[in-house]
Amino acid sequence: MLTVAADIDVLARFGRALADPIRCRLLLALREAPAHPSDLAEQLGISRTRLSNHLACLRDCGLVVAVPVGRRTRYNLADARLGHALDDLRTAVVAVDADRHCANAADEGCC
User: Fold this and answer.
1) Which of 39, 52, 66, 101 gives 20 to 30 Å between its CA and that of 77?
2) CA 72, CA 55: separation in Å to the nearest integer?
3) Residue 73, C-beta contacts closer than 8 angstroms, at least 6 positions apart
4) Chain-centre distance of CA 11, in angstroms?
């Protein structure tokens, strides 16, 4: 069993990852299927440099893993349970406050 401090650290890392819309989109895309960075950049409509920075953040948070496949790298969710957690969070928020939106997502105190 994790300690309270470890639990808080895990949740804070997950929260930091979800705090950015591009990282949310990346996690949701990887929930569907593992993918190569070039495919993810095209799917999300962002530059490979920008994508690389977000993937590095998600790796550092322990949410995705890079898997070498020949000369390329494929990204997967670090644990299949993360896909279920994303689904649970998404549906729980919609079920509770379907008509509520953050006034300014950039604000620290939002929601």
Assistant:
1) 101
2) 15
3) 36, 37, 66, 67
4) 13
